[in-house]
Amino acid sequence: METFRLKILEKKQITHDTNCFTIEKPEGYQFVPGQATELSLLKEGWENEKRPFTFTNLPENKHLEFIIKSYHDHEGVTKRLDEAQVGDMVEIGDAWGAITYKGEGVFIAGGAGITPFISIFRELRKKNQIGNNSLIFANKTNSDIILFDELKTILGNKFHNIIADQDDTAYDRGLIDKAYLASKISDFKDQHFYLCGPEGFMEAVEKALKELGANPDSLVFEK
Ligand SMILES: Cc1cc2nc3c(=O)[nH]c(=O)nc-3n(C[C@H](O)[C@H](O)[C@H](O)COP(=O)(O)OP(=O)(O)OC[C@H]3O[C@@H](n4cnc5c(N)ncnc54)[C@H](O)[C@@H]3O)c2cc1C
Questions:
Q1: pLDDT-above-90 percentage for the chain
Q2: What CATH number has the domain spanning 105-220?
Q3: What global pTM score does this model have?
């Protein structure tokens, strides 16, 4: 596998625990919106600690962009990335991944699971093809919602937020379950369902969708 050593050009905090990194792009580097790569931080002792992260920019952009949520409860790569600075170097590999746009449907994301959908939505907006695509975005609190303003601008009233742990949220409250999906989705037969989120989220949403009649072939997720 080819690898590329690239400089961090910009780092912007976009929620309390999430940064947006702009990174050099190798000449001719290609990916499809929704795809990811293995990334490591080139700091002593961390060079071989590769973790998957998803491109959030458009393929034709001059630079690469990653939106990365950091976990501070243990000494992992995301904690190190939160401490990284402009000018630090990272290494990435080729692009890979099963999440790509296959046609109109419902995108269902949990937390940082929104990242593959950001590049897909940005591309659909550029092509003026947002159409009937909709997004259900689950987070713990309002302050965890990544890129709320941009997603609202792109999706308008087809953007649904559900919040698990904040009593005074103005959004829907609770976890995504069968009843919630049934209240937001009228057609389970003839559209795609794009899923991305933590393990427990994926299991619960996949099970609920199947029980509501979604065809297993219509589910798009990273296996
Ligand atoms: C295809 C794909 C694409 C992804 N894209 C993105 C993206 O674009 N943006 C993004 O933010 N994330 C993304 N992720 C998730 C990201 O890869 C992980 O958050 C990252 O690998 C965590 O690395 P880490 O070294 O910080 O944690 P690791 O050490 O690898 O630990 C992984 C998880 O285990 C738990 N854990 C492990 N050890 C401990 C410990 N000692 N104490 C407490 N908890 C612990 C934590 O919950 C942690 O999240 C993606 C994942 C996949 C599979």
A1: 99
A2: 3.40.50.80
A3: 0.95
Fold of 4-92: Elongation Factor Tu (Ef-tu); domain 3 (2.40.30)
Ligand 1 pocket (Cβ < 6 Å) reads 36, 51-54, 66-69, 71, 73-74, 76-79, 97, 112, 115, 222
CA pair distance 90, 114, nearest whole angstrom: 22
Distance 76 CA to ligand 1 centre (A): 8
pLDDT band at 223 (very low <50, low <70, confident <90, very high): confident
Predicted pLDDT at 174: 97
**Domain extents for the chain?**
4-92, 105-220
Give, to the nearest 10 degrees, the angle between helix 115-126 and helix 148-155: 40
Residue 92 alpha carbon to ligand 1 centre in Å: 16
Query: What is the b/e burial string over 20-41, where b = at least 16 CB atoms within 10 angstroms of the residue's CB?
Result: bbbbbbeeebebbbbbbbbbbb
Do the beta carbons of residue 205 and residue 180 sit within 8 Å? no
Residues 6+ apart with CB under 8 A from 158: 130, 132, 133, 134, 135
Neighbours of 10 (CB within 10 A): 12
Residues 188-211: what's their mean pLDDT?
A: 97
CA–CA distance, 191 with 57 (Å, rounded to integer): 25
- Residue 141 in this model has a pLDDT that exceeds 90: yes
Q: Are residues 196 and 114 in contact, defined by beta-carbon separation less than 8 angstroms?
A: yes
Res. 142: pLDDT tops 90: yes
Contact, 100 vs 35, CB < 8 A?
yes
User: What value does the mean pLDDT of the chain take?
Assistant: 97
